[in-house]
Hints:
Blueprint: E1 5-17, E2 28-48, E3 50-52, E4 57-59, H1 68-80, E5 86-94, H2 104-119, H3 126-141, H4 147-154, E6 158-160, E7 167-168, E8 176-181, H5 188-201, H6 203-225, H7 229-245, H8 251-262, E9 267-271, E10 278-283, H9 286-298, E11 303-308
Parallel strand pairs: 3-5
Antiparallel strand pairs: 1-2, 2-5, 2-6, 3-4, 6-7, 8-10, 8-11, 9-10
Helix pairs in contact: 1-2, 1-3, 2-3, 3-4, 5-6, 6-7
The structure holds (R)-mevalonate (MEV).
Amino acid sequence: MESRRAIKTAIGKIILIGEHAVVYGEPSIAIPFPGVSIKTTICETIGPVILECYYYRGRLSDSPKAVLGLKKVIEGVTESFNEKLENFSIHIASTIPPARGMGSSAAVAISTIRALYEFFNRTLTENELLKWAHESEKVVHGSPSGIDAAVVGGERPLYYRKGMPFVPFKINLDAYLVVGDTGREGQTREAVEGVRQFIESKPDEGMELIKELGNLTRLARKSIEDKDAEKLGKAMFKAHIILDKLGVSNDKLNFLVSKALDCGALGAKLTGGGRGGCMIALADDRKKANYISQCLLSSGAKNTWINRLGDDLVGS
Ligand code: MEV
């Protein structure tokens, strides 16, 4: 008899603008990023649950801190089905560089939740998917706004505000997004904590910067609706300067952002938690995007990806 098996995937995400401010109730725009993805395979076995992923290979019960969010979800989902936590293995393959602001933790949780539901033959609603993904994100990031799980789970661009109904957001701009990986792991949890401390020590200045970020996201939304890539680029770079003031950029991110601008980007900024991870640059056509990508690679970026910022975002 063939052993049971379930295979599910999830794609990455890019925050176009509004990261960190979104934790304080300001809006943020995020897009799915199908250039990178996670694949979870669950197979029927005999014995304890074995986990194989980037950070760890071994018994689930002995997992290190780095995979605690995932462990919590695997245990929680299995228990919620009244199934035993044994006799299966979970293998996670990834093309999302870990801890680079591309949503790898949310995508690992989401592909695994999908695979568990399939393996145990249960129906998964979007609400349940987001509830479990949020449980994992809480362990990984401390106090997540929920944007990563929402955009990775929904696989559509979102104009997102914490605690508000999701607003799917049509993006069809004749422009290209270049993503550049610094090659250094970002520190979302520490960066979120750093911003909290900044606000605690300088409440007026801190909240002013957060509000400015929110206004830039509103401006970015209007620029996208007006199909004005130049205005969007300017808003992106202004957001980067504020994120730097809040202490979530670093030298390498600032260097790659400057290089992208020197090479003709309409705007550039860090993306996601910061303090490492990735930056993004906006280019007005494919040729310019290729050129910016080459500039970034020759300036020390570990990898780059290019995506049209349009309706063909998913699956392009
Ligand atoms: C991380 O991708 C985005 C942050 O705004 C944190 C969050 O929203 O949970 C930095």
